[in-house]
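Dear support,

Our group has been running a series of protein-ligand predictions, and this particular one with 5-amino-5-deoxy-1-O-phosphono-D-mannitol is the one our PI (initials K.S.) wants archived with full inputs and outputs. We had some confusion internally about which version of the output was final, so please treat the block below as the authoritative record. The input we submitted was:
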Amino acid sequence: MCGIVGYIGPSDALPILVDSLKRLEYRGYDSSGVALLNIDKGRIVLNVQKRPGQISVLESQMEHIDSSIGMAHTRWATHGIPNQINAHPHTDDKGTVAVIHNGIIDNHLKLKEELKSKGHVFLSQTDSEVIPHLIAEEYKGSNGDLFEAVRKTVHRLEGSYAIVVLHRDHPDQIVCAREKSPMVLGKGVKGSFIASDVTALLKYTNRFLYLEDGDMASLTRDGIHVERIAGGPAERPWKEVEWSLEDAEKGGFKHYMIKEIYEQPRSLHQTLSGWRSEEETLPKSLSKANTARIIACGTSYHAGMVGKYLFEKYTGMPVEASMASEYRFADHVREDPLMLFITQSGETLDTIMAAREARKRGSRTLSITNVLGSTITRETDLTLYLRSGPEIGVAASKTFTSQLMMMYLISSYVGFSTGYISRDEYRSVQGHLRTAIRAVEGVLKDVTKVMGQVEWFKGAENAFYLGRYINYPTALEGALKMKEISYIHCEGYPAGELKHGPLALLTDRTPVVALVTNDHTYDKILGNIGECSARGSPVLAIAPEGDREVSKYTDRVIYYPQVPPLFSPIPISVILQLLAYHAADQRGCAIDKPRNLAKSVTVE
Ligand code: M6R
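Confirmed final output from the archive:
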């Protein structure tokens, strides 16, 4: 969950490191630090500076050091509170080795005891601090070979790590290694780079090498060398990434999230037009599938839940959607022939571990991600790409609607392959998706409709989001969006369940958002709105344009452009994102970096 960057080359390292680190701040923002090697009075010095708080604090307080080799870290605390001592980089007690780390070292207590018995003194409460101390120990027996000392060290680590190492005796070398935490290398005209993900480095290069678990690398002024930690070569291809720097910047918007909300007509078009090439990669054996399971976390799980309804509709087969963190620990009575893993980042550890488990059990595994070369692409048999462009805001927006689109596409494709629906029906899904994109454009053009309701939400402390059938997961996602960025406690609920308990919580201070769809659930949801109004709760209905009934039940309605009811989650989700965004903005919340959260959850 932390962000790491490294640089070696002819340029001034510090501005490159700070600029790249800021682009990773969505991964962690409770403290940050840099380490640089420079020459002072003829001696090589390992200079470490770190501060609690956001990167801007470090930036404003740090001393400029002339150096062409260094590394930097932004932290999301797991072991030890966010303060200066626990911030990375960490060093050994002689200050010769510095390490930045993303991940968790499970056996750090045992290692710490062993190192203490050899006289090592520890300053922080972190698990990471054992790493530089271990490297210092191993370095003694490695004849001054830093690469070998790091190799011997990581052999002793249990858990997950992406580490970058600098040593005072090696002013022309950075060593890094990865196991279950993301790390990419970049090669630019002016030097070589390391980062947790490509968005950090788009300003400097679009040529990337994705390290795999069990890989380590040495970056020198002459080039980059990658090996397996266990020994032996690691042939990893260099890939060109199509994302531009502009894609990863705010472009005049106040927050990444609102920029990403507005990008949805484009990102949805990209997902849809990319489907043609994705379709060609799908194996013919999908036509034999008779059950499926969809696994994901958070917002991606909500997309998976929508997928469950769609698979059942278009394929007639029973489908389960499970949270990755639960699936892994469940007792499985049968193998699921088709396992679908949805992860925007491709780095969510719970989802990756679930994919690994499923593969071990012999299931066919398919992943849906937005990030080229991310870990999930190696852990599954086949990957479909969302093509949404980089998403920086911690709260997922454009990738969610692209995930939804992918659910319509893949479920109808499987339905067509198994003969459950006709070719015409399969093609008509794509026509309806184009209608849904136009509906999203309509929502974004008429944002005043949403703005008019934001004030009403602003003072709320608790709220309910109700939906039925395909819009039950949409309600869950709307509630998640509102709670994660505005800190208003919201619960998404299947509307029919309200009377089985939660109705007790409704008062005239509990806003209810009800999602209305013109399908077989229509009368029932109107009834639920009536139930809430009767308890004095103010209800905001999100209903299709042209509806004449809903306004008889509540005078607060946001209308969305007409789409076939099954496709309504797409425009409704955009309305709910706007509602959450503007409510959070009015409350003055840190929208792109909500407290305690990080974009990629690379710890279990
Ligand atoms: O990268 P992933 O899609 O695997 O991430 C899963 C969740 O961590 C993520 O969707 C999270 O719930 C978002 N913050 C929601 O906005």
